Amino acid sequence: MTGTEPAAQAIIDTTRPHPARVYDWFLGGKDNYPVDEQLGRRIAEIDGGAPRAALANRAFMRRATRALAAGSGIRQFLDIGTGIPTEPNLHQVAQSVAPDARVVYVDNDPIVLAHAHALLRGTPQGVTEYLQADARDPRSILEQASRVLDFGRPVALSLIALLHFVADEDGAHDLVRTLVDALAPGSCLVLSTMTADFEPANVRRGIAAYAAGGVTLVARSRAEVGVFFEGLELLPPGIESVARWRPEEEPEGAAPVSLYGAVGLKR
After folding, report:
1. Residue 106's closest CA among 128, 122, 126?
2. Angle at Cα 132 formed by Cα 128 and Cα 138, nearest 5°?
3. How far apart, in whole angstroms, are the C-alpha atoms of residue 122 and residue 107?
4. Residues whose CB falls within 8 Å of the CB of residue 60, separated by 6 or more in sequence, listed in order
5. For position 20, what pLDDT does the model report?
6. What is the pTM of this model?
7. Which of 13, 21, 28, 131 has a CA positioned 20 to 30 A from the CA of residue 37?
8. Which residue has the higher pLDDT, 173 or 33?
9. Does the pLDDT at position 10 exceed 60?
10. Which domains does the chain have, with CATH numbers?
11. d(CA 216, CA 19)
12. Alpha-carbon torsion 24, 7, 132, 67, what sign?
């Protein structure tokens, strides 16, 4: 891995829950703090499907990455809103198919930065890079990522479980459009985001629990998710609950997963 070493004075706020660390707790990770576990337990009590949704979302990322590396031949990946590394990571999936794949991760949490330098190690043939940057500054991300990725060639842009932290009025659509506009034909947008279409009452209570912890969440309908893919060709099966996007085996149980996932191709 290349990149800048973590700043010695990076400050990790352990007094307030952080989405990446709560997500890590849902996935059974150990890189979280009591305040994150408290919020995670509160959400799980409200919505027992939340941990399952986190696992299903992670599995969606792996399936989509593998499909694009193997089926579409994409060799460049830009993952924004990376979160705390949880194996197998995106670069491990991509480079298991194509050892020469180039992967750039982007996040703005100091704890993610610290773990990225320790864990995100790719193949000798490929490149694995980490950028400390804010998702709300897409132009800066593109400028920095261009040192590793060739935007004249196809790139898989992954926005996994990111956009439900960005409201429409805060520029969610402009963020996606700026990023997609910079991509070459043959590139793909991989996106997952929260929805209240399946369990509206549970999701509303979960949103309230996050808000009490100082974290704002936005739930979007299928139609609202579709707006992010305007101008792109949705790959089959289109916009689906992440558990039902090309499952490797039939999803277990009837309980819905309150996250939509989809992949769009730029022609």
Report:
1. 128
2. 95
3. 18
4. 160, 192, 242, 243, 245, 259, 261
5. 79
6. 0.88
7. 131
8. 173
9. no
10. 19-248+255-265 (3.40.50.150)
11. 10
12. negative
